Amino acid sequence: MKSGMGRGQVQGFLSDYRDDMVEVGLEARGLPATIARPFDVKSQNVAPPEKVGGNAFGGFIPYIVVILCMTGAMYPAMDLTAGEKERGTMETLLCSPVNRVNIVLGKFLMTLSASVVTMLLSLIMFAVSAVGAGKVFAGGGGAGGGEGGGEGFVMLIDPWGMLGVFGMIVPLAVLFAVGLLTVSLFAKSFKEAQSYVSPLMIVVILPSVMGMLPGVELTWKTALVPITSLSLVCKEMLSGVWNWHFILVIFGSQVVYAAAALWLCVKMFNRESVIFRA
Predict the structure, then answer these.
(1) What gap in Å lies between CA 235 and CA 129, rounded to an integer?
(2) Each residue's pLDDT tens digit in the chain (278 positions)?
(3) Do residues 227 and 208 lie in contact, with contact meaning Cβ atoms separated by under 8 Å?
(4) Which of 5, 57, 173, 175 is the most interior residue, by most CB within 10 Å?
(5) What is the 3-state secondary structure of 95-144?
(6) Is the CB of residue 54 less than 8 Å from the CB of residue 235?
(7) Distance between CA atoms of 158 and 55, rounded to whole angstroms?
(8) Shortest CA distance to 50 belongs to which of 192, 152, 199, 183?
(9) In whole angstroms, what is the distance from residue 98 CA to residue 175 CA?
(10) What's the rounded Cα separation, in Å, for the pair 16 and 266?
(11) CA distance 223 to 238
(12) Model pTM?
């Protein structure tokens, strides 16, 4: 790294020195300095602000949403299963005159609520901080500062795309909630549940990161990858691109995965060997 920085400084110095030598030589011969550079090349982005913002933040926002859904559901799921085993309240709950399915649904809704609320509050605070930072930098008197700077920062992302992201993330939040409940149910204590659940973060993070990599686009092959497909389609929606055939396929597959996980969770709660595993 130090060698690269030093090379950049030497190259910059020699480039400036070369330009000065060319300019001096041309002036000595009475020629204009523009003869060595007949034209300049400039680039201008003609894309709308939504596409620019979607390209810049489109991969980051779905990644954050997925991680927040996972972490928001993690500890409630462990406490409602392994935690109750450790406190000895699971037996009392199962002896109550309530259907086992209703118990599972109650725990599932509690876990899902914690996951969604954690995600929403975190995103709201992130948006407030982003708007505040945009207004501070816009009003700091630097280049490009002026009125409406903070508002321009907000409009970099399509608001309908944000609603689409929330709609697409609901089945995944359901999948995380019931999946964590099922995995934590096998544990005998809270610490054991942590050892089961913690490695799942890697399983969630890796597909999310794949959606942020350059060159990875939404195709029929990537649409079948559970979390990667969600990151890719959310990135397109934040850019204002709505591929409804991919959206319907990904949303439908997420609903199927969530329903299968919920069925498995109910089945595990009905097995005494799992609940009272010694």
Answers:
(1) 21
(2) 889 999 999 999 999 999 889 888 888 888 887 787 788 888 887 877 666 666 666 667 788 888 888 888 898 999 888 888 888 887 787 787 888 888 888 899 999 999 889 888 887 887 777 667 667 765 554 444 444 444 444 446 667 777 888 888 888 889 999 989 888 888 888 888 888 888 888 888 888 888 777 777 888 888 878 888 888 888 888 777 788 888 898 898 889 988 998 888 888 888 777 776 65
(3) yes
(4) 173
(5) HCCCCHHHHHHHHHHHHHHHHHHHHHHHHHHHHHHHHHHHHHHHCCCCCC
(6) yes
(7) 11
(8) 152
(9) 24
(10) 72
(11) 17
(12) 0.71
Sign (positive/negative) of CA torsion 158, 160, 161, 165? positive
| Block residue for tokens 């914690």 | 114
What distance in Å separates the CA atoms of residue 148 and residue 140, rounded to the nearest whole number? Answer: 13
One-letter amino acid for residue 78 of the chain? M
End-to-end CA distance of the chain: 55
Which amino acid belongs to residue 234?
Answer: C
Query: How many degrees, rounded to 5, is the angle at CA 238 between CA 235 and CA 244?
Result: 80
Give me 166's structure tokens: 């929330």
Amino acid identity of residue 177, one-letter, is A
Name the DSSP class of 33. G
DSSP code string of 55-66: HHHTTHHHHHHH
d(CA 142, CA 149): 12
Which whole-number Å values give the CA distances from 178 to 46, 96, 229, 236, 257, in the listed order? Answer: 45, 22, 20, 28, 10
